[in-house]
Every structure is written in C-alpha cells, then in structure tokens.
Amino acid sequence: MTGFIDMLRNITPEIYASLKQAVEIGKWSDGRKLTQEQKELCLQAMIAWETDNLPEEERTGYMGPQSCKSEQKEVPNILFSTGSDTLH
Q: CB within 10 Å: which end of the chain, N or C, has fewer?
C-alpha cells in the first residue's frame, strides 16, 4: 500500500488531468484502452488527489445541496378530501 501512497504524493496537476481524461474517454492518451483495474486505480488516485487539492464542490461525485422536488409543490390530500365524490 505504501507504493500507492507514494504515487499519490507525486501526482501533479498535469498527471491528474491525464488520469481524469483517461477515465472519461476510457483510453490512455496513446489510444490504448484502460482495463477495469486501471479505471478503478485511476479513479482512486483522482479522488485522493482531489481531497487534498480541490474544494469540495469541484471534486468527483460532488452532488451539492439538494432538496426533494416534491417539496416545491403542494400535494393535494386525496384521502381525506371534503369533496362529495370521495370515499372515506
């Protein structure tokens, strides 16, 4: 594991950009396809680098503050409606 940690310490912004592009397009810059293991390792390296070098809102997987869309609408209460055509 120390090899991976040592590698993370040596990632430059240029290397990070190269890893990110490789993951995005599924290929290395020379056109060779990434293996599944390479994709996983690249993502792990990207996420680790981002933790130390990017603000949270710029990191991979950031979702930001969200609310449920149904909170924006008033939902009618159809179970206990006072309309004459309902059963309760």
A: N
